[in-house]
Design a protein that fits this description.
Layout (H helix, E strand, L loop, with lengths): L4 H27 L10 H24 L13 H18 L12 H20 L8 H24 L7 H14 L5 H17 L2 H7 L6 H31 L7 E3 L6 E4 L2 E4 L16 E7 L7 E6 L1 E2 L4 E2 L7 E2 L19 E7 L9 E2 L3 E5 L4 E3 L4 E3 L9 E6 L6 H5 L20 H11 L6 H13 L5 E2 L11 H8 L1 E2 L1 H14 L4 E7 L3 E2 L4 E5 L3 E9 L3 E4 L5 H4 L46 E3 L11 H10 L1 H11 L11 H14 L13 H13 L5 H19 L8 H20 L16
Parallel strand pairs: 15-16
Antiparallel strand pairs: 1-22, 2-3, 4-9, 4-19, 5-10, 5-17, 6-7, 8-12, 9-14, 11-14, 12-13, 17-20, 18-19, 20-21
Length: about 750
């Protein structure tokens, strides 16, 4: 008995709808397998909606194409997939090529440039982050774009070429990252994917269509049709694989432009370095000197940031320093160098600083009130809070500072009152076409903040949100003439963009603000010595609080800048906790460094190559190029994940597993720490708990073992090239730390008496 035309049409429509639905379900379920390497977030909802839209588009196109036809063979069968690919490119450009994360219906070459720039940023992030990675906008683009490509390939194989048995092959691209890096996959997602694939085989058996056409089709024609379909499937799979490998391996060869680099933040002079006061918002952060800039000796923890100078004038792109000032001669080593010299002198902290490769007329000093004991003629400018000499310093220049930490608390800053500085430059906002828009964003971010302090805290929290802003040393090209507005739209940059944007937004709210430039605290090299290199250069905003003076905040993400100042920590923002210590008394080695390549001493500042960011636009073929780049995302993404630090070499123990072992065994004796505590702070937390319970210091042997384990863990997580530690060494460190802590808590004699303070690590 033969099928009537309407019955055949209904059957074909049902097959197409069923196949498209099952492919969509399988892809969406497989997408959740990526949550093992990318933190779950809104990106899964975006990917789901985009897959459903594409499934509807390709299904409808096939229904129209196959009307009154029993079978459609290539190349005609490829048409619905091409329609879906066009819609996918438009959707990705609208979602991730716009100036913000809101969907843009109208797309153009500018969207292509932004999308390409964000793909470059995603590549940077995947080369420096460890899974699971935060779903910032570039990472979301990578994930959602990969899911879209997988759907288009799977839909073509199952619905266009009608080889449902091969549909699972492209889905593997979404499962491989989790399997390789983490070793686990979500059970529910796996079951749903397998069921969908099995149902797909039941819904569509392409050989039935061939048999139905046997009466009017010769065996030769049938064999040709099946061969063409199979060959087409293999060709598509090969093209995707080869394209992904080629684009993945040659991503560094994307058209590049040469840009001069402010922002090494250093200008090299042979074997010497100095800070540059030319901060340009539109330039990329190039290489910086790895030479040792200075060392300092102090008891306890580090001094916190050392500031060289402050910047006030901003024209929308560059900071203007203006003419140097003479200041007032520093005549007495006991003279307080601070805009308000009557500040209380309690808990002074002395440090001896030795300059090495740093050459400048300015001295690096703590950001808190301080006194200075130094040979030579020095003058203090209270307006800029800078100490200047007549000549550049030389290697071996040594001076002593005593810093007095102000008792800043959230409550004291909330209730600060009095007049602001007379200088109108502290409130100057560049007059651009986007000035009012910046003010509106600042008002929206700080809505509900009841004080100047709460406004500052809201701005800092806004910028440190890694799901909203992405740290990158490459800056997308500016488009509006207002670099702050460009940063608020592209949300990609490094410390200069973060510090500048918070400063300008604070000014738009009526808060006097400026930018401080100097160094992060550096690395501990002994119990009392720290070293600072050129890679510790940094910029941050300072806001004025009447009665308290200039107060530092830290909007740059923690991985590059370290923790926020204690008074600006949202965790303690409501308790008014007294802070009678230096603002950053925490270890700062490693995580505070912004990434930079190996040092290349040069007589002049070198140029730096950056990703293709020319503002002249891309030619028409760039649309097809963008679609091809998106097509390569899945397998290309698998390639970069495989290049990330996965399982350690055979026979070499992983620092992560050693740290987990340490946590489990210390937990058995009642010593634990919250997950919010970083590895760098964990040794202090452990030592503190033991001290509280025993009433005596922890032996140095355990302290050093804890610090070494924490450093090994940080190296594995964040170092550009992590050298595995031998298993015996890690085991010995864990055994030492656990044994000594257990002895201390159980009352047995300590192995080492009178240990020194906890080392901060390197």
């Amino acid at each position: 008995m033969t099928q009537g035309p309407s019955t055949a049409l209904t059957s074909a429509t049902g097959r197409l709808v069923g196949t498209s639905a099952l492919v969509a379900v399988a892809v969406i379920a497989s997408m959740h397998a990526l949550e093992t390497v990318i933190v779950a977030g809104d990106w899964t909802g975006t990917g789901t909606r985009l897959v459903l839209v594409l499934a509807a588009v390709t299904c409808l196109a096939r229904i129209v194409l196959e009307r009154d036809r029993e079978q459609v063979t290539p190349p005609a069968a490829l048409a619905p997939s091409l329609v879906g690919a066009a819609v996918a490119v438009w959707g990705l450009l609208g979602l991730y090529g716009g100036p913000t994360d809101r969907f843009s219906i109208a797309v153009g070459l500018t969207n292509v440039e932004r999308l390409t720039s964000r793909l470059t940023t995603a590549r940077e992030l995947t080369a420096s982050e460890t899974a699971p990675i935060d779903p910032s906008l570039p990472i979301e683009l990578l994930a959602v774009g990969g899911v879209v490509v997988v759907f288009l390939v799977a839909d073509l194989v199952a619905g266009g070429l009608r080889i449902p048995a091969a549909t699972g092959l492209p889905l593997l691209a979404l499962w491989v990252p989790g399997l390789v890096l983490v070793g686990t996959v979500p059970t529910t997602a796996f079951v749903v994917t397998v069921l969908s694939l099995l149902l797909m085989l039941a819904v569509d058996n392409p050989y039935r269509a061939v048999r139905r056409s046997a009466v009017s089709t010769s065996p030769r024609t049938r064999r040709a049709a099946l061969g063409l379909r199979t060959g087409g499937s293999l060709a598509v799979a090969a093209a995707v694989t080869v394209g992904a490998l080629v684009l993945g391996s040659s991503s560094a060869a994307v058209p590049q432009v040469v840009s001069s680099s402010w922002s090494r933040i250093f200008a090299s002079e042979g074997q010497t370095v100095r800070l540059s006061d030319d901060l340009d918002m539109q330039r990329n952060l190039g290489e910086r000197s790895g030479q040792r800039v200075l060392t300092y000796e102090t008891a306890g923890q580090n001094l916190g940031p050392l500031r060289m100078f402050t910047l006030t004038g901003f024209d929308g792109t560059n900071w203007r320093r203006g003419q140097d000032r003479d200041g007032v001669p520093v005549a007495d080593a006991d003279e307080m160098l601070w805009p308000n010299p009557d500040v209380e002198r309690e808990g002074g902290r002395e440090a001896r600083i030795t300059l090495e490769s740093l050459r400048d007329t300015l001295l690096p000093l703590p950001t808190e009130p301080r006194t200075l004991e130094a040979e030579g003629d020095w003058s203090y400018d209270a307006t800029r809070d800078e100490v200047r000499g007549p000549d550049r310093t030389s290697s071996g220049t040594t001076f002593t500072v005593t810093a007095y930490a102000r008792p800043l608390t959230p409550e004291s800053l909330r209730t600060a009152s009095g007049p602001d500085p007379d200088d109108p430059n502290y409130l100057e906002v560049p007059s651009t076409s986007r000035s009012e828009d910046i003010g509106a964003v600042a008002a929206e971010v700080t809505a509900g903040a009841g004080s100047r302090y709460d406004q500052a805290l809201a701005l800092q929290t806004y910028f440190r949100d890694t799901t909203r802003f992405t740290y990158s040393t490459e800056v997308p090209p500016g488009e509006t003439g207002d670099s702050v507005w460009d940063f608020l739209q592209d949300r990609t940059g490094y410390c200069v963009q973060y510090a500048t944007s918070m400063t300008v937004m604070a000014r738009s709210l009526g808060i006097p603000a400026r930018v401080g430039v100097g160094f992060l605290p550096g690395q501990r090299t002994s119990d009392t010595t720290f070293q600072v290199t050129g890679r510790d250069s940094h910029a941050w905003p300072e806001l004025y609080f009447p009665g308290e003076g200039w107060v530092r905040f830290e909007p740059t993400p923690a991985q590059q800048s370290g923790p926020v100042p204690r008074w600006a920590d949202p965790v303690v923002a409501g308790d008014g906790e007294q802070q009678g210590q230096m603002p950053d008394e925490v270890p700062t080695a490693g995580a505070a460094e912004e990434p930079a390549p190996e040092e290349e001493p040069a007589a002049t500042a070198p140029t730096t190559q950056v990703g293709g960011q020319a503002g002249s636009g891309l030619p028409g073929w760039a649309w097809l190029g963008a679609a091809g780049a998106v097509l390569a995302l899945v397998l290309g993404g698998a390639a970069w994940l495989l290049r990330r630090r996965g399982p350690t070499e055979a026979g070499v123990r992983d620092a992560e597993s050693a740290w987990e072992d340490l946590a489990a065994r210390l937990g058995e004796v009642g010593v634990s720490w919250p997950v919010s505590v970083t590895p760098r702070r964990a040794p202090q937390e452990i030592v503190g708990q033991v001290r509280v319970r025993t009433g005596r210091p922890v032996p140095e042997e355990a302290v050093e073992a804890l610090a070494t384990l924490a450093q090994a863990l940080e190296n594995q997580r964040y170092a550009r090239r992590s050298t595995p530690t031998d298993a015996a060494g890690l085991d010995e460190l864990v055994e030492t730390a656990v044994a000594v802590v257990d002895d201390e808590l159980s009352g047995r004699p300590a192995r080492v008496a009178d240990p020194s303070a906890l080392p901060a690590g390197r």
